[in-house]
């Protein structure tokens, strides 16, 4: 997760309270999605960004997860996202993101 997005998430957590936020990810690789999930929940593991040492405990979900997918208009999902489900390892991505969510989320 880039430094600018870390700063935005930190600012939103300070403004609205971390208990009022959920992070929706859309990364194409399991490792990158997992790293982003870890960053918003347990802090930046690279110690390079605004979330270094900041454990927000935010729950992170990938757009492919049924809990999120079911909230999106089916036509929009089909037009914008469904193609990626055919070419990416969806199960691996979901497993990676959910591992960090289950381990570190506070809310």
Task: Describe the protein's architecture and organization.
The protein contains 6 helices and 2 strands, in the order αβαβαααα. The chain is mainly alpha-helical and 107 residues long. The protein has one domain (3-104). It has a two-stranded parallel ribbon. Strand 1 (23-25), helix 2 (30-42) and strand 2 form a beta-alpha-beta unit. The chain is globular. The mean pLDDT is 97.
Concise account of the structure shown:
The protein has six helices and two strands; from the N terminus they run H-E-H-E-H-H-H-H. With 107 residues, it is mainly alpha-helical. It has one domain.
Query: Which regions have little confidence, pLDDT < 50, spanning 5+ residues?
Result: none
Strands, total number? 2
Identify the quaternary structure here.
single chain
Quote the average pLDDT. 97
Task: Write the element-wise H/E pattern from the N-terminal end onward.
Answer: HEHEHHHH
Strand proportion: 5-15%
Number of helices: 6
Largest β sheet strand count, sense and barrel closure: 2 strands, parallel
What class would the helix/strand composition place it in?
mainly alpha
What overall form do the CA principal axes indicate?
globular
